[in-house]
Automatic annotation (TrEMBL):
The gene is dat. Keywords: Amino-acid biosynthesis, Aminotransferase, Branched-chain amino acid biosynthesis, Pyridoxal phosphate, Transferase. This is Probable branched-chain-amino-acid aminotransferase. Its cofactor is pyridoxal 5'-phosphate. It comes from the Bacteria. Belongs to the class-IV pyridoxal-phosphate-dependent aminotransferase family. One of its GO terms (cellular component) is cytosol.
Length: 285
């Protein structure tokens, strides 16, 4: 049975609970992070802790614990649940005031903090990474502050379902004619050796994996262009891939039913996955 963390306590999952007045439940008034675990170690914990701090700041929310304690909780959950490979999900909400009210509660209402683990043996060695995934394109109907990692995940969830119904694995979202990102990942294409991905702004999440992958690509003398691209350009690309903390670098081999290149993972995506995993493991804590 899994041990989870709720507001200062480690509890068996079925004994853990959050109030029905919690603003995460009523207003999606919360932020989250997902950190992967490989070989019992946390991948890029610092990046996730920093982004959490930023999300909280942008939402004018109080941090429930400081960085050192957050790291200790992550580590304790890995140990208690004997996680070799998997994920740690963290959520912080604006807490549970006495009643439902659109106005933020007073400062004395404590934020809610919840963490739980998901065991995923062989996370870095997925069959999907060997075969590549397919994506469809859909309109991006999310709110305007996608740089804040909030728990408003209904639209991405609908996008994932639309992909499933269309026989694809995921969806890339399109706004003003250009791809923003995937439902839960950043999106890239490769053309004539250049890696192209949308520039950072409030329109996309600033992926922790994105930052590491682009740094490693530049260090390996690869060309990186941070700019928007259209679905047409993507369908004519040599390769494509997505990045996220749980998928690392995942090759995309089909966009809207059009196979890219040979329809198999391309050399740039394969190489980036290799160097990202190698580097991430080196600095895991
Ligand atoms: N973009 C969106 C919308 C996401 O939800 C995520 C991850 O959940 C990402 C990008 C990738 O971010 P990271 O690499 O930090 O996991």
């Amino acid at each position: 049975m899994r041990t989870v963390y709720v507001n200062g306590q480690y509890l068996p999952e079925q004994e853990a609970s959050v109030s029905i007045f919690d603003r995460g439940f009523l207003f999606a008034d919360g932020v989250y992070e997902v950190t992967s675990v490989l070989g019992g170690k946390l991948i890029d914990f610092d990046g996730h802790a920093r982004r959490l701090q930023r999300s909280l700041g942008e939402m004018e929310m109080r941090a429930p614990v400081e960085r050192g304690e957050l790291l200790a909780i992550h580590r304790e959950l890995v140990t208690l649940n004997e996680i070799e490979d998997g994920l740690i999900y963290l959520q912080v909400t604006r807490g549970a005031p006495a009643d439902r009210d659109f106005v933020y509660p007073d400062e004395d209402v404590a934020p809610t903090i919840v963490l739980f683990t998901q065991s995923k043996p062989g996370l870095a060695d997925s069959p999907a990474a060997r075969a590549g995934i397919s994506v469809i394109t859909i309109p991006d109907a999310r709110w305007g502050r996608r740089d804040i990692k909030t728990v408003q995940l209904l639209y991405p969830s609908m996008g994932k379902m639309a992909a499933k119904k269309a026989g694809a694995d995921d969806a890339w979202m399109v706004e003003d004619g250009q791809v923003t990102e995937g439902t839960s990942n950043n999106a890239y294409i490769v053309k004539n050796g250049a890696i192209i991905t949308r520039q950072l702004s409030t329109e996309i999440l600033h992926g922790i994996t994105r930052a590491a992958v682009l740094r490693l690509a530049r260090e390996a003398q690869m060309t990186v262009e941070e700019r928007g691209f259209t679905p047409d350009e993507a369908r004519e690309a040599d390769e494509a891939f997505v990045t996220s903390a749980s998928a690392f670098v995942m090759p995309v081999v089909k966009i809207d039913g059009v196979a890219l290149g040979e329809g198999t993972p391309g050399p740039v995506a394969r190489r980036l996955r290799e160097i990202y995993l190698e580097e991430a493991l080196k600095i895991a804590i």
